[in-house]
């Protein structure tokens, strides 16, 4: 766990200034491309390149089960976690379609399914057979937390070995919006009802019950929710822990990260709390329809690229934003300057 606090270098300030200067010379009114300009400038600084690029994308989806599912907090049965992992391995999920579209490398990691899967296309890095129901005890032990964090670091290691330009983390786990909502409520010190949403499709009464269960757990564990890792260990999921460590490790290795939806953003919130410098390396794909996502993005001071009323997870919203980042790079790299195009500036 000590590696999570290792220093993070800031993006290259010199290349940031070069990119700013280039944007000022491109044949367009200043600021007319909005956030696309900022994205290109940030990527140039992150990559220490005059011409940033996003050609090789790495997607790691972490899957795990949650003990709190026994409380009836999801519209789907817990077996769906395993069934969806099989779907990922077969290439049939939304995230697979989107990954293929942007020619991304895709992997799925079992970081804590109830039953392990003997599938060649599923990486096994198991912290346990699902978490404990956090409404009665801490979600995981210190050892399990360490293993789950290591799963995220290992995924980034594979991405770095392949020389990728961008890391995307996804997640799968029935009841993981309950865990993420609990983590967010504890981290932001707000009532569970302020951040608990429909997840996989709960009605209003079911959402109220879900929030009540989270609030009960917050009260039960109040005395031990003292640090981000305490919160993660007590209320989190193995996949949320893996994402948290992956985001920090990517930043420590100067690898840009594109954050997905609510659960991924809660992991980003934890990552920021553990090692604040990591957010210099984050982009945010979208603002989802899940109730708590806007609140978490606000805490992250994030500016998401899209708002499409999605709430699927898996890394899907992040992948939809990849072409926007790629277009930002192309515009920055390929547009003519005023002098090249002989266009007057006065």
Beta-strand portion reads 5-15%
Tally the beta strands. 6
Unreliable runs: none
- Overall morphology: globular
- Along the chain, the helix and strand elements come as HHEHHEEHEHHHHEHEHHH
Q: Give me the Rg, rounded.
A: 20 Å
As a percent range, the share of helical residues equals: 40-55%
C-alpha end-to-end distance: 57 Å
What can you see in these coordinates?
This protein has helices at 13-25, 35-47, 79-90, 94-101, 142-161, 176-188, 204-220, 228-235, 238-252, 262-274, 293-299, 316-334, 338-341; strands at 57-64, 105-112, 122-124, 166-172, 257-259, 282-284. The protein has 346 residues and is of the alpha/beta class. The chain has a 6-stranded parallel sheet, sandwiched between helices. Helix 5 (142-161) crosses helix 9 and helix 6 (176-188) packs parallel to helix 10. The longest helix is centred in the middle third of the chain and has 20 residues, at 142-161. The model has no long low-confidence stretch (mean pLDDT 97).
């Amino acid at each position: 766990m000590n590696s999570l606090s290792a220093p993070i270098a800031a993006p290259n300030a010199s290349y940031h200034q070069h990119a700013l200067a280039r944007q000022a010379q491109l044949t367009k009114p200043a600021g007319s491309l909005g956030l696309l300009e900022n994205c290109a400038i940030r990527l140039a600084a992150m990559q220490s390149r005059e011409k940033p690029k996003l050609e090789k994308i790495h997607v790691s989806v972490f899957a795990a089960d949650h003990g709190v599912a026994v409380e009836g907090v999801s519209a789907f049965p817990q077996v769906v976690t395993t069934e969806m992992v099989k779907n990922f391995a077969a290439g049939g999920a939304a995230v697979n379609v989107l990954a293929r579209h942007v020619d991304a490398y895709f992997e799925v990691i079992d970081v804590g399914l109830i039953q392990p899967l003997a599938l060649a296309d599923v990486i096994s890095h198991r912290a346990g057979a699902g978490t404990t129901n956090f409404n009665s005890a801490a979600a995981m032990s210190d050892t399990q937390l360490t293993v789950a964090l290591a799963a995220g670091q290992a995924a980034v290691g594979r991405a770095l070995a392949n020389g990728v330009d961008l890391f995307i983390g996804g997640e799968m786990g029935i009841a993981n919006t309950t865990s993420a909502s609990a983590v967010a409520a504890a981290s932001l010190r707000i009532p569970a009802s302020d951040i608990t949403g429909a997840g996989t499709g709960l009605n209003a009464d079911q959402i109220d019950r879900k929030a009540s269960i989270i609030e009960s757990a917050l009260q039960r564990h109040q005395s031990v929710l003292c640090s981000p890792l305490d919160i993660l260990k007590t209320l989190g999921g193995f996949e949320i822990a893996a994402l948290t460590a992956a985001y920090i490790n990517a930043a420590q290795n100067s690898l840009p990260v594109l954050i997905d939806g609510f659960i991924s953003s809660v992991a980003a919130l934890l990552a920021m709390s553990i090692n604040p410098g990591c957010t210099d390396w984050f982009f945010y794909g979208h603002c989802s329809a899940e109730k708590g996502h806007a609140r978490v993005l606000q805490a992250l001071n994030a500016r998401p690229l899209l708002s499409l009323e999605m709430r699927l997870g898996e890394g899907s919203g992040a992948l939809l934003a990849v072409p926007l980042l790629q277009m930002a790079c192309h515009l920055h790299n390929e547009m003519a300057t005023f002098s090249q195009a002989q266009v007057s500036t006065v």
